[in-house]
Amino acid sequence: MKVLKFGGSSVGSADSIRNVKRIVESQTEPVIVVVSALGGITDKLIRTSQLAVAGDVAYLTEYAEMAERHHAMIHAVIPEGAARQRLILEVDRMLEELRSIYQGVYLIRDLSPKTQATIVSYGERISSHIVATLIDGAQWYDSRQFIKTEVKGGRSLLASELTNQLVRQTWNSLPPISLVPGFISTDAESGEVTNLGRGGSDYTASIIAAALDATSLEIWTDVDGFMTADPRVISSAYVIPELSYIEAMELCNFGAKVVYPPTIYPVCVKNIPIRIRNTFNPDAPGTVIKKEVADDSRLIKGISSIKGSTLITVAGLSMVGVIGVNRRIFSVLAENGISVFMVSQASSENSTSIGVRDQDAAAACRVLNDEFAKEIETGAMFPMQAEGGLATVAVVGENMKHTPGIAGKLFGTLGRSGISVIACAQGASETNISFVVDSKYLRKTLNVIHDAFFLSEYQVLNLFLCGVGTVGKSLIGQIASQQEKLMREQGLKLNVVGLASSRRAIFDREGLDLNRYRELLQSAPESNVRRLHDEVIGMNIFNSVFVDCTASPEVAALYHDFLEHNVNIVAANKIAASSDYANYHELKAIAQRRGVKFLFETNVGAGLPIIRTINDLIHSGDKILRIEAVLSGTLNFIFNKISADVPFSQTVHMAKDEGYSEPDPRVDLSGTDVIRKLVILAREAGYQLEQSDVEASLFIPDAFFKGDVETFWQSLPSLDDEFEKRRARLESEGKCWRFVAKYEDGHARVALAEIPKGHPFYGLEGSNNIVMLTTERYREYPMLIQGYGAGASVTAAGVFADIMSIANI
Length: 809
Ligand code: ADP
Ligand code: ASP
Ligand code: MG
Fold this sequence. Notes:
By secondary structure, the chain is α/β, with parallel strands linked by helices. Helix content is 41%, strand content 22%. The chain has 29 helices and 30 strands. The strands form five sheets. Strands 3-6-2-1-9-11-12-10 form an eight-stranded mixed sheet, sandwiched between helices. The longest helix has 27 residues, at 82-108. The model has no long low-confidence stretch (mean pLDDT 93). The site of adenosine-5'-diphosphate (ADP) has 19 residues, from loops. Adenosine-5'-diphosphate is lined by residues 7-10, 36, 199, 221-223, 226-227, 229-232, 256-258, 302.
């Protein structure tokens, strides 16, 4: 025989309850079916009693809703006829009893634990009658007759021996289908109604299965099985096919709600397998929990967590080497019915930290302070310190045994994500490492660990894309077209979780559909830099990258806080890297300290691998002696176009029309852009340089840089004659103009240079860039990097490459 337990959601709606009927009626051996209350009813029974005891008449409405929900269910699933009539009579009788109890509570304003237990028992009592009527041939049993509890340490606990005996008596002959309400029980002595605790129907089923030596215990719920993590928190959690009892016990004890923790023990002792199945998807194989599982190479099986943990620190100098302090701590807590789910002791032995649930914290401090009152008075021990607002996470798996490096990987992963571990403990059995973090980091903690240990077959990067100008747009297009291939071939999931233009922003943890980014942005709420800052930090999402495709100083000013919150930065925006050296240096230092990246390859030479090359040279021990470069696509275009037929002023217009120059071309003509780039290169080469240290020789009179753009365009042709004269001379000498940036021996300079034929810069075409690096290794023949130095798509590709390099850490 088997025991099948159906939880609240399995009996929560007409459709699901029909699934239950199908599943039960298709069984080929005798079954005992245990059911919970209709989904949500236990909570509602409790809430209603609280309203009643508070004297709030709203309890009547809540009660009426509950009565209506049961009636509606009966009408939906039980066909008209005598059976339905009998059921309605029975249910109405129980509902009437319930109403009177509520009325009593309301009038007397008293809700004893006994009354509360009676009230909640109606959930299972009613649901089990409905299901028993629905399933053909089901025989109803009253669990209050055979599930017995006794009071120990102020709590009602199972009276196992008596219960086992009564269960066996009850089923000395076994009908094909028995139906039992879960959760409820009675006190062995007084016969008063009690229960097995929230979620206790699982336990009822396990107790019966163990007492009757069932072949298996099936727990039917609303998920496909026991999953690697809570699927409500980790959307990529997946079903674990097999778990050992120990693993399941550890996961349940630490909050995996799918099985009520005491459930495992009775069936484990009898070596009866537990299967977790989905009522809504009966074809799914589910999870089997048993003694030994097939060899599985996964180091860890699952992660679970308990929110609302408090850490109590028992500390004092007298504890050192004193035998018995720990015994006293645990005895006094146990005597007071306080359960401890984690203990960590410093090896110096002068402090022990214990993890308890928030609701037990005050009592735990009180009893410990009483227990150690004498020691505290003499100053040998300190009063208890409690730190609340914490969460405890457990990483579980039997394969962790004797596998070195798991704790290292675990804590390394947390560190890189900016999560500090407040306390940790590893059981000697090595099937569980548990640790405490600040509650606000819980979601992120679970995500990073899940990502690091379970999803090694694919990795996720969560991107915030800021700026939808030409580069931003092009990047969005490139990511959208590569997403699927990257997932398939590289196992990399690029999840765009935020998208911002200068006026609007949209965020979604689960990822935005880039093919619809225009619509999404259009209907997105208005935004500003402050909101961007708060959202990115507030989302607190793991493996995140902020991608800046703007030219905005305000956006660049956000990097500091983002890096401090372990958000990687990829910037096409040059402002930060070329700002004050102190700021540049600080950003790099934060990134290094936090274990995240601050990348800005496209600040110089668009997608050309210039900064990366300089970094590689330096890291491999080379020294950059001289940098000479043509770094302005716009200026190179202008000096390549200028000819006897095309005067200077016209080339400036052409550069603008082709989209090379800034809207105000003076930003290019003044060399400002080139100065920024040179500063960045020199800094990356290891030199401390400010923009103001760069000497700039301009090729246009100062007056042109003052006043508005209109006047500038009007007066520009006045320079043409002079330019043409100089150009003609240059041509006759076999030379050409290049706007060259140069750094050597602490001197930085940008100037228009006359380049002779044969020099590597001479043949530089179009808007291309070139960088010539003279290093200790590349001294006689310097290293040259050249190619497209401007343009949206190559810049976007460079940004993309930076993003990919973060994925490859
Ligand atoms: P039932 O009403 O069937 O007893 P519960 O709500 O008690 O169902 O438990 C099932 C729920 O447990 C799932 O819907 C899921 O949200 C949650 N859960 C938490 N952790 C896990 C996990 N590791 N695996 C599966 N489900 C989990
Ligand atoms: N109905 C009870 C509860 O909600 C028992 C159970 O569902 O297992 O806690
Ligand atoms: Mg449950």
